[in-house]
Design brief:
Number of domains: 2
Number of helices: 5
Strand order of the largest sheet: 7-10-13-16-19-24-27-30-33-36-38
Radius of gyration: 24 Å
CATH superfamily of the largest domain: Hexapeptide repeat proteins
Number of strands: 38
CATH topology of the largest domain: UDP N-Acetylglucosamine Acyltransferase, domain 1
């Protein structure tokens, strides 16, 4: 990614909280990898394993730690956590690239009745905003987005193309929702009557806090009675499903292809790695870390790391272990 105007290294260092060694007036136009960066771009290094690349990089500046800076003689932005500096740097370049977005409402958008849209926000082509919606300052809504009745999108949030937001959804400040996400659809709720399913209507809301990011093609169901709640600073990857009345505590991150079933609660500052599943009506306490492909079938009351997925092995070994696993109950009973 590159920018026409660029930013000086002095200004960039001040904004990301780095120490600068080199030319303060040098301008960089974007970010790139060590091996692909040009003289007008900035790269970063966080591991010693990449030191061999430093001699050949053409980057105009390097983000690095104090230890790794000794091996590079060019312009440097130095800090204790270069990966964090890199993250802050990406945000700055993203904001600079967004500055070119047209503010206002496209003539090709549909705007319902009694809608409040800030004149500082951007509504793209073919957006459909239903009655009673509130769009606050500095919101960016991409093409083809649908927003249902009486929903709210607060300051600084960005909704990418083709997101579907149902009625009575509340989205906090500075959120990012990626393409294809569906927020506020009905969950799986049915009762049986004489062998036939009777639908349980979902009357609750989805309430999303501030600084939440939701990945592409993820689905968050509204509450059946009561609300589905996503607290501040939650990060949700692509293809994640959160069912009705789920609660996700602040600072928690959920990786791709994970699912949390109805009325379960995940605490604060937790992580769910890829392809995890949590059954319904389970409570997971704060600071729990669940490794990939784990199935959580009961509540977790103590913080720590939990696993249930089986690491891969050669198929012939897996078959032998599977046979042994079936015999475990007999071995235990015989003791």
């Amino acid at each position: 990614m590159s920018l026409v105007s660029g930013i000086s290294l002095k200004e960039l260092a001040n904004q990301i909280g780095a120490d600068l060694e080199g030319d303060p007036d040098k301008k960089v136009l974007g970010l790139n990898t060590l091996d692909a960066a040009s003289y007008d771009e900035i790269a970063f290094i966080a591991r010693e394993s990449f030191l061999s690349t430093l001699s050949s990089t053409k980057a105009g500046a390097l983000i690095c730690s104090n230890d790794l800076s000794k091996d590079y003689s060019g312009n440097k932005l130095i800090g204790n956590d270069p990966y964090l500096l890199y993250a802050r740097c990406t945000k700055i370049f993203k904001e600079l690239s967004n500055s070119a977005i047209d503010i206002g409402i496209s003539k090709l958008a549909h705007i319902g009745n009694k809608v409040s849209i800030s004149d500082k926000s951007s509504i793209a082509n073919f957006v459909n905003i239903s009655d009673g919606v509130v769009i606050e300052d500095d919101v960016i809504i991409g093409s083809g987005v649908f927003i249902g009745e009486n929903s709210v999108v607060r300051n600084g949030s960005k909704i990418y193309a083709n997101v579907s937001i149902y009625d009575s959804v509340e989205i906090g400040k500075n959120c990012i929702i990626h393409s294809g996400a569906v927020i506020g659809s009905d969950g799986l709720g049915f009762a049986k009557e004489k062998g036939k399913w009777v639908k349980i209507e979902h009357l609750g809301k989805v309430i999303i806090g501030n600084n939440v990011e939701i990945g592409s093609n993820s689905s968050i169901d509204r509450g059946s009675v009561g609300n589905t709640l996503i607290e501040d600073d939650v990060k949700i990857d692509n293809l994640v499903h959160l069912a009705h009345n789920v609660k996700i505590g602040s600072g928690t991150a959920i990786a791709a292809n994970s699912a949390v079933a109805g009325s379960s609660s995940i605490g604060k500052n937790c992580t769910l790695a890829g392809c995890c599943a949590v059954v319904d009506n389970v409570e997971v306490t704060d600071e729990v870390h669940i490794t990939a492909m784990s199935l959580i079938t009961k509540s977790i009351k103590e913080k720590g790391v939990y696993s249930s997925g089986t690491p891969f092995m050669k198929n012939k070994d897996w078959k032998k272990n599977a046979v042994s696993f079936k015999r475990l109950h007999k071995l235990i009973a015989s003791k």
